Amino acid sequence: MNIIIIDHAIERAIQRGTTREEILRVLQEGIEVQAKKGRKGKEIVFDYGKEWLGKYYPQKKVVVIYVMENEDIVVITAKVYYGKWEVKSED
Questions:
Q1: Given 2, 39, 48, 91, which is the most exposed site by the fewest CB atoms within 10 A?
Q2: CA-to-CA distance for 38 and 83, rounded, in angstroms?
């Protein structure tokens, strides 16, 4: 299985503050989330502890939206949200 990250997704990742490495980690380890238009989504909350656009945030949530084409994962976009989340345990 190949992972293909289209140019649009790379541009959005840079603009929104995530990296190729984080996108790959989300795809491998992330929790599945709902996505629109038949697409799939996964997310991870990362510790951040830095400023983004002049404001300090303890965490960031990276959401990767993708589709399956044959056996390949094609990343459509990456969204990043800054803030603080409660991490749910899977008991």
A1: 91
A2: 28
